[in-house]
Specification:
Elements: H1 2-6, H2 11-16, H3 22-34, E1 35-39, E2 44-48
Antiparallel strand pairs: 1-2
Length: 50
């Protein structure tokens, strides 16, 4: 039981889980292009421009 919880996965195992879909990447890129952050005196204001 101890080996299951404390066994570290190899780099190859980690990278297999980090393969997002093309739709996810496209969504995040489009969102970041549409996001505008305006600095204020005490805080920043975020606006989504679509």
């Amino acid at each position: 039981m101890k080996n299951i919880y404390f066994e570290k996965p190899s780099r190859e195992e980690k990278s297999q889980h980090l393969k997002p879909k093309k739709e996810t990447i496209k969504f995040l890129l489009n969102y970041s292009k549409a996001l505008k952050v305006l600095p204020g005196k005490t805080e920043n204001y975020e606006m989504l421009l679509n």
